Amino acid sequence: MKACELVKVYREEEKDTQAPYFTSDFMLVNYLNDALTEFAKKTMSFYDSTSALTQLYVAVGQHILPFDQRILEIKNAIVRETGDNLRIISANVADPNPYSLLLNSEAGEMILTKKYHYPVNIQLRVIRKPLKRLTLEDINQAIPDIDEEDYRVLLHYIKYSAFSVADADIFDPNRAATNLALFEQKCQQIKDQNLRRRSAIQPIAMEWIWNV
Known about the structure:
four-stranded mixed sheet, four-stranded antiparallel sheet, single chain, 33% helix, 4 helices, alpha+beta, 19% strand
């Protein structure tokens, strides 16, 4: 679904189809961005192993790496040149093993415990937030990361945001609370469904093959 299509659904349901609108397209796109971020955090469903934030270049002797704040969780970290499977642990662990990636998200960094004597590339598999915020110029683009059946979940958060503006004509704290509750309920259902789906899959040994 395109962003403009979701905006149209909102306007039709809220009878806000005639200019001047109660809620501008600009604000609805902002609310959509917030909805995507909250959806990502609550469902933990935006898996990624292909975007730029999942590819880390490590120079010779380098051990401090940047941590991208869009990452919610690192599931795997593999050194492409060697196949080393790095253990993901907190930076406050007292005695990490030599093949660890220590996370200090508050400081915006990760520490690689093994120092390589040649440049390497680390491939991450992560759960993340949206890669970027949509702008009004993106309104005719497809909404990223979301399954087709989950667009209505975003609509609940958009309505929550619109009804929460205290000085707006459509301010309605009761409807805002109702839509927020529905959004959170649906997100929890999606998270639970994904967990059940993953637990039902038989473990599969995955072999990482890299061209180096």
